[in-house]
Amino acid sequence: MQYDIKISVIIPFYNTPIMLFVECIRSVKKLQPFEIILVDDCSDDSELVKIAKNSACKYFKTAYQSGSDGHPFNLGVHKAKGDYICRVDSDDVLLDLPKKMFYEIHFGNADRVLMPKRMNLEELILAPRAMFSAMVIKKELLMRYSLPEDINVFADILLTLRLLYNKHSYDIHETVNYIYRKRENSIQSSYSLFQHRLRQLQTVARFCFLENIDTQKSMHYLNLAMLNVQYGSDSRKVVKNMRKNNIS
Known about the structure:
This protein is α/β, with parallel strands linked by helices. 40% of the residues lie in helices and 14% in strands.
């Protein structure tokens, strides 16, 4: 395949089921990106590590087992030689990459994830969703907005909120180009729905802090996040009805 851009695909992993890991790497190799970087968050599955080292991809290992999304990915970003970065979860499948970049960011189009054509801050606060996998983004932006390395916030949502707030240009892949694999023992499935909503509230608070947003706007965003805590996926309908009835 012929690309006009150099894309480094980063695949962080930790004890991923071998069959899913192999399928993930195979799917990315078919697309022939500039480079594929595997970042091992100190897996203790020796067979998995052997496969990674013998995959003909670049292999790096974190200094310690972080248990986070941010730490291994940030390591991969610093090691990457491409002008653009694409992150892929180690148990998922990547179907396509853009051949050219017309904007700073190209959002992937994942199955089972609602991808509105026009995103905004309120939409993402009220209806948080995975936005990072298959995203192709300028490396310089990831150097500026590095992912948080703790589990108290949604790293991908925090990054996307900051990108939208600072009005970086983007488009969205027209067809589905990313397949999610749901794993019962994943980190995400270990939290209750209410705990996920609390993490979203903390994510919005961190966003307001990092961007030094004024008090009035911060309260607005935090109130929206609280509606998500209360109503979940129905929070957008609640806001629509409130505005229809002129309730602030």
